[in-house]
Design a protein that fits this description.
This protein is mainly α and 204 residues long. The N and C termini lie far apart (41 Å). It has helices spanning 4-13, 15-34, 36-58, 63-85, 91-113, 118-156, 170-202.
Length: 204
Amino acid sequence: MLSFRLFMRDLRKYKKSLMVSIAFFAVGILMGAIETERIANLVMTDIETLRNYSKQLSESAVPELSFFRFIFMNNVIKSLGVIVLGALFGIFPAVFLLMNGLILGFLVTSSAQHGANLFDLIVKGLLPHGIIEIPAIIMAAAFGIQFGYNVLKGLGELGARDRNERTIVWRDFFISLIRAAFWTVVLLLIAAVIESTLTFYLVR
């Protein structure tokens, strides 16, 4: 039930939702890059909070372990929340992707404007763990968006006289959600290990 092959099959089955997720994330990045000054006040509070957490974690007895725990738990809670709360018509996953893209686009653009080395920022600071973490988050959101779509479609089919006329097979879909949640956690675990070790040392 939890095989990676079946997870990939699910992604192909729900490829429209995956494309929508990628689009939301890309739009967020674009908005963050273009409207840097306008959105500064919107995202700086979150960024400052993360910086304070980062400072506290770096001063702990074992920084790598502290960073790993924080990164992994933070990403897992948010990603699983995105899947489950997608039931609310897919609104939460869409906003989540937009905001994460917004912050990423803002950070890269703002850093470049302040003279930061983009090679170090992207290749050392983002790429090692981001190549796994970002797709995992986008895929989790895709299942959340699909959940919202299925809820809307299911509500529309409630009036069907015959159960055979209903197209949503909820048992199969919930199995795919469990599978998605499992592999999201696995991928985020790998990403957190990389970020708390390799990325941690590269950006020191």
